[in-house]
Amino acid sequence: MISKFKDLSIGRAIFLVTTTIVGIIMLLSTTLTYQLIFARTDELIERTSKEINKQVVMNYENYLSNVIDTSNSLQEYILELTKNSEVANLENLFIATLNIERNIENIALLDLSGRPIVSSTKEEIADDIIGRSWFIEARNNVDIHHFSSSHIEDVVVNGTTEVFSVSRSIYYYDEGVQKEGVLLIDIDTRNLKALAAQTNLGNQGHIIITNQGNELIYSSLPACTSDVCESARIANDIVLGGKLVTLDNMAMFVNVNTIKYTRWNIATFINVNDITNSKTDSLYRIVLIFLGTLIAIAFSSAVFSMRISKPMNKLKEHIHLIQEGDFDTMVQVEGQREVVVLADAFNSMSNRIKELMQRVLKEQVEKRKTHFVALQNQINPHFLYNTLDSIVWLSENNRNKDVEKAIIALSKFFRMSISDQMSTVQLKDEVEHVRNYLLIQQIRYQHSFKFEFDIDKEIEHNYVIKLSLQPLVENAIIHGIRPEESFTKILIKGFQKDGFTIIEVYNEGYGMTQQRIDDIHAMIRGEKESESMGLKNVYQRLRLYYGVDADLFIESELDEFTKVTMKIPIGQEAQV
Amino acid sequence: MRKIGLLLFAFVLLGCEAKKVEIPLLIYDMQDAYMFDFEEKIQGAMGDDFVLTTVDGQNSQIIQNEDIDNWINEKFPLLIVNPVDRLSVYSIIEKAKKSGTKIIFFNREPLAQDMALYDSVYYVGADAAESARIQAQIIMELFGNNPQLNEFDKNGDGIIQAVILKGEQGHQDAEARTKVVVETLSEAGYKVEVLDIGIANFDRQTAKIAMDGLIATHGKNIEVVISNNDAMALGAIESLSDKGYFVDTNKDGKIDRTSEVWIPVVGIDGLDIAMEQIESGFLYGTVFNDSQNMAEAIVELANLLINGEDVSDLGFTITNGKYIWISYKKITNQ
Q: Which A residues, 46 through 75, put their C-beta within 8 Å of a C-beta on chain B?
């Protein structure tokens, strides 16, 4: 892992590290925020819907305890009025109560056989009341008010109104004797509905009232008409308390509570879809912000790391260039300050190296030049001495004509040697120079050799190193003249071949063995102590001037000839 | 790692051991003086084994429902509940049954049909009818334990002229006490004429006003005042004091029944102040609702239930495996 990380480029490492750290921190803080917000939201949903439920329950309790109060008052009056046999007044009271409490549909006092003693209605009372569930329940539990489920009024024969019945066992007096009977109050269900309509429970929010036998008393949801509907089932399942459920793809918070004194349960279904949706919305928003920030961080980190790594890479490539010897290209970078400073430092370093290298090169060249000039100058005194020696010999023999010739040739010869400061000369000038030299030597050697030039016209203007041909010719004279023969011949050939100017100097001397040739080669290449300065001098100057392509070598056949060849690459002069 | 785990486990065990079992005690309304006393008695009877957390229902079943829902959701093993509305207990029992929570109800008796819904519900209380029977005995004693009646039958007609102060109309106890006291007297051969029933909702002040009216209507005909509870009885005595009865002529703080004017007033409950007034002769008698004994029964039952022991080991008689009936005591100055 770590080694893998070490292998990463700076750019990638910066990018990975920043993005990862920021990502982790953001993820943590986002999750925390999300949980905090949503815990609060859930709590808020629960609390709000509980409060709404309480309000609804209290509305119903107020309404229904009103009914119980009415019933209790009626019971007191029943006891009092029946005791005094004022049944007609009781009937009036029932009718008056009906007028005051508009939602009461019927009030009836029934004996235990279900026959009416007093009733608020003029309509015909049913004769099978003893079988009505509200009657049976009132008798089963004599202590309490019984609240029936809603039904079409059935105390009268032709009832039409939908009511719920409040019934209970009570005492009354029949001719002074206390008896038990049943008081029935039928109540129009529209008030239940009105109460439900009062409360805003949101879209599709509704109220379900069931009794404790899980029978549906009332539902404000039109679709829920029996106790097997989904809402009633949920309400009965919760029994008591609150729960978040999904009903018809809508989030509903359900609270189930009891309604005091009635044995009824009321369930409020409050639509919290909007809140839960907004929860999802904010989840999306949070995730979006998270991703956005992460991308922004990743992007800026990428840009930032590129601003460091890109100039670094440029520097790296530049170092490769320098490795290959290119000091001229300057590196141009844009990026963070340090990198720019680094690049600038690098540039000045490479400049400095270049300067140093050029100085070294210059010094080298100076050194070689000095060496070259020194080599060149070695020739002259030696030759001058020999020539002057010859002229002395000529004048001793009174060969004045020859002295004259010799001195003219010598002066021409030296004028050329001295006059020109250039290292190289055109071949024709070198040939002219050699010709003067040969003339001088002919005088000295009393014409014991002949010479001949065979130089191609086209190479006459090729450049050769100044005073390079003369030592070869000097050599040919020294080793090529056979005293026993009247005329030996020295041939100087010049031609061009394979990009080289080739100059060959032949003599018809004794020739030499291959062993001797190898020795001389070794000597002129500086591998062996040198006997003769001339050839070595030329060879070294060739190499100094033209490099490794230039050459000087000897071929020979015993008793036949010796040939010294000088190979000069065309257009490859060194900076001397 | 394993060591740390063991250590944690040990801490958890220690923590569990150190923490006492908490039992919620839900009182219907702490404003009710009787329940306030009762709560103190239960707290007093509870030893150090448990922590009783009292929750005031503020006479609202909605509030109590919410509390019960919370306690049940928090998986408390046992609730002691004095319900606000005994008819709403059905839902509480159903809810407890689903979660396996045990419940002891007290003071307000749930319907028998609701109690039958679930095995682990209990009721500790006194039988309202019994209190009325004992109240009737006190009245019989007053009249000399003889249906022929003694000198307290002021008009000498052989019939007890009584006014009844009744609790809330429709209230189980009020209905039962009113009905049974008359029935018991009748069954014992006493002739009773209920001159009037004043409904005073168990409340002293309401009773005083109701009594004012009753005195105005029936005046000297009243031979005995029968009250469904002590609070109303005390209200009645206040009213009677205003109308020339219970005049402490010798200022000794007591009513001398032979020399000073009084009317027998009989209550039920045995409140401390009622006991004092019996002592001083204002209140004739009361039926002591033995809340101390009841509190002890509740605590003992709670102990058994928390420890998962057999409820038949209880030091009180348990009826039908669910009901613990605590007897009333007759209190008079005789």
A: 50, 54, 57-58, 61, 68, 71-73, 75
